[in-house]
Known about the structure:
Oligomer: single chain
Structural class: alpha+beta
Amino acid sequence: MNRTGQVPFGKRDRLIAELTEQIRSGRLARGEQLPGENQIAETYQVSRGTVRSALSELQRQELIATRSGVGSFVTFDGVTLDQTVGWATALADSGFDISTELLSIERTTDPGLTERFGLTEFVAIRRLRRDRTAGPVSVETSLIPATGELRELPEKGLLDGSITATLLSAGLRSGAGDQVIGTQALSADMAALLERPEGELFLQAVRTSVTAGGELVEQVTSLLDPNRFQFHLTFGRP
């Protein structure tokens, strides 16, 4: 029996105390966005339920404000992938034996992106992801601005083999974006690359990331095996 009458300092209380200290000390600046629930849960080794409860208490204390919104996330074999770190890292972190093969890096044009962002040239990076046992599961084409040091990627290659690391090195960090999801019948070229019958339906995702100022960071068009990948939509706050 607890004869002192004190309640043990649990994970939720420790998380509230830590985030409160960061806010009051200025380590989390006014207006700065908190990390996502998944990231907070991983950082502090707590459940997402604990994170939500802690954030609700911070909101009650008027230390933070929350907005209802809509978001989407992708799973591979039922495991959520963190798109902010890149799927190569996310798949590896999830324990899947998926290899990523760089197919090409070349400069190109895209009238749609030019009209939207005012850029005249882009670097196209195409990669194939392969389950070492089951074969190819996706092919992705990333378009990034062919500006500054990024224009030399066809000659110099990616930093550490990573698009995410390359973009961060160039000062491009995603602050917002949108994602369009549909289906696409595989062309003869894509079918051969993915080792599937021509005309087979694959999921198609077009994800466009921009900086906080609205500048293009990356547009990724992915063809994804629908037996392995799924898209989920979230809205509001539980």
